[in-house]
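Thread: quick sanity check before group meeting

JM: Hey all, I'm pulling together slides for Thursday and realized we never actually wrote out the predicted structure for the chain we discussed last week. Dropping the sequence here so it's in one place. If anyone has concerns about the input, flag it before I start.
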Amino acid sequence: MLVEQYTRNLKLKKRKTKPLPRVKDEPVPMVTVTVVGEPGVGKSSIVRRFRNAGFRQEYLQTLGVERSQAVVERPSSCKKKSKTTVLRFLDTNEVFLDPSMATTIQDQVDAIHASLSNYVLIVYDVTNHASFVETKGWMKIVRSMVPVSTTLV
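JM (edit): ok, ran it. Output follows.
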C-alpha cells in the first residue's frame, strides 16, 4: 500500500514548475513556510490551494517532506517595487525540525530548511478536537527548535 502511494506521489511530482518571476534587477522576495500538524488534518490540501492546484478527492499520505512553491501577488497598496512574493512550502508528514533526529542526509537538509523557515503553519482539523488539542504540543516542539523570530500561525 505504501509503495503504491509513494509511486503515485512520484508521478504527481514530475510536473513542470513555472519559472520564478523577475523584477528589474531586484530579487523577488521569498518566504519559507513549514507546514506541520497531525496526520490527515489537511496540510497538503492547504498547500495545494495556495498553488491553485485544486482539491483532491482521494487521500494520499505525504511521504517525507514535499517541497513546492506558489507565487502570490501583493496588494496594490504595497510600496515595495516587487508586486509578487514567492512562498516556498515544506509540507511534512512528520516534522524534522531537529537535524540531530534526522536519519538520512535528506532528512538533515529538510530539518535545516525547516529550522530556517520564516513561518510555521500549525494545522488542525476543525472536525477533530484531538487534532486541535495536539497543536499545543506542536507549538512546544516548534518553539524549541526554530528561532524566536519565526512566526507561528
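AS: nice. The first strand starts at residue 30 and ends at 37. The chain has a mean pLDDT of 73.
JM: adding both to the slides.
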